[in-house]
Design a protein that fits this description.
The chain has helices at residues 16-23, 108-114, 118-128, 130-142, 144-156, 158-175, 181-189, 206-209, 218-223, and strands at residues 39-44, 50-53, 56-59, 68-73, 77-82, 85-91, 99-100. With 224 residues, the chain is of the alpha+beta class. Among the domains are: 39-105, no CATH class; 116-194, no CATH class.
Length: 224
């Protein structure tokens, strides 16, 4: 009040107290609700109908694939705008690699595929054959939700290779104790489904089980 407020300001060329006397009547009280702070960014909709922000993925309407959108991110919400129109709202994700997907944002074919639940996979596997059904059951016996996509992928192969080849590939995968989509896909890609499946190991002969012809038992060895 004794020095900085009464000397002429280098930019305004006025005393700060003189300027404050003009501005003071125009000052208003702070709002009762604090304003929401947000960050804005431009993002592009990828081919999978998602955008990426801070290493997390958020869906957008598939019709906007390739378009540039404005993204508004607060501490709790992410909103997407196209030509000033709100097109998507998601909860804010904090973990890298996580994904928030609205089913209606996906193309019709993808929406139909998302409806293929475990029961649908089991019914389709039963139509393909017993080995395919056993493989899908083995997948779901581990973790249903984690392996649902793998089960869907296996069943989906019937449209590409047919039930016969897929059933044979599933039988071979089960014989190798590897009920996984990757195993079935590799078998089909390499044409191994027609190869003989490995047989279980033969039981040990009497020589190895009950001792050889000249074998001596432990008691006789200790006596001598």
């Amino acid at each position: 009040m004794q020095e900085a407020s009464v000397r002429k300001h280098g930019t305004t060329h006025e005393q700060p107290l003189t300027r404050f006397a003009i501005e003071q009547p125009l000052l208003a009280a702070l709002p009762d609700v604090p304003p929401v702070l947000a960050a804005w960014a431009t993002v592009t909709v990828h081919r999978d109908a998602h955008i990426q922000y801070h290493k997390a993925l958020y869906s957008a309407p598939f019709a906007l694939v390739g378009k540039t959108l404005w993204l508004k991110a607060t501490d709790t919400v992410v909103q997407l705008f196209h030509q000033h129109e709100l097109v998507a709202t998601h909860p804010r994700l904090r973990k890298a690699g996580t994904r928030s997907t609205v089913r209606d944002h996906q193309p019709p074919a993808a929406q139909a595929w998302l409806e293929h639940d475990p029961q649908w996979c089991l019914s389709q596997a039963k139509e393909i054959g017993p080995s395919c059904l056993a493989l899908i059951l083995a997948l779901f016996n581990d973790q249903v939700l984690v392996n649902l996509r793998g089960a869907q992928g296996i069943v989906r192969l019937r449209g590409k290779v047919g039930d016969t080849r897929l059933e044979a590939a599933c039988e071979r995968a089960m014989a190798h104790s590897s009920p996984r989509w990757r195993t079935v896909k590799t078998i089909l890609d390499k044409g191994l489904e027609s190869e003989p499946t490995p047989q279980s190991p033969q039981p040990l002969t009497d020589t190895y089980v009950n001792g050889g012809r000249f074998g001596r038992n432990l008691q006789s060895l200790l006596i001598h």
